[in-house]
Amino acid sequence: MNRFVVEEVLPVSGLEYRVIDMDFSRTLEEMVGGAMKKSLRALALLYRLVAQLRGFRPDLVYLTFGPTGGALLRDLIIVWICRLFGKRVCLHLHGTGLAKRNSRYYRWAYRSLLGEGWLILLAESLYPDVAAFIPRERCLVLPNAVSGPEATQGRVCTGRVKRILYLANYQ
User: Which residues face 91 on adjacent strands?
Assistant: First the structure.
């Protein structure tokens, strides 16, 4: 899906955009372990993020976030940096189970992450899972079905958002 957005949708959207690939696990072994490599890649990502926030100056930062573990901490840091630069953040949640994580850490992390900005959900039925952390009016439902590049041909963004920094795993 991210590859489709980067290669088909964004180029015809009328928006200026930059993409930062968040591919932290390139092999199965790295998915299970590889903490040192992931940590170094995360530091490099933060450097690229700050460079884009200072140079490209996006109006909006889009991030598909990881709802658990080290990915959640990494994405919290990314969101905090974006907010320090005064950028609006739109988060895209793939997955469920936020409401079931009852530890203080997770409740604090989700409130901090979702306390400002917007959240994209893949279905309306997923809202109850995040209701404790974000009001409904700041959630957008975007079904995980894209009709193809012809659906975006000729569309130009006419709102305040003209530049998007897109952070996602698209490789």
Answer: 63, 119
Contact 70, 96 (CB under 8 A): no
pTM for this model (two decimals) = 0.82
Among candidate residues 103, 158, 114, the one with its CA nearest the CA of residue 136: 114
| Tokens matching residue 25 | 């696990």
Which residue in this structure is represented by tokens 């590889």? 34
**SS3 sequence, 83-127?**
HHCCCEEEEEECCCCCCCCCCHHHHHHHHHHHCCCEEEECCHHHH
pLDDT at 169 over 60: yes
> Alpha-carbon torsion 30, 33, 38, 40, what sign?
negative
Q: How many helices (H) and strands (E) does the chain have?
A: 6, 6
pLDDT tens digits for 96-110?
888 888 899 999 999
Residues 75 and 113: their CA atoms lie apart, in Å, by: 8
How far does CA 105 lie from the centroid of its chain?
20
Q: What is the pLDDT of residues 115-154, one digit of tens each?
A: 888 998 888 999 999 999 999 999 988 876 455 444 444 4
> Distance (Å, rounded) from C-alpha 49 to C-alpha 1?
22
Helix (H), strand (E) at residue 141 = strand 139-141
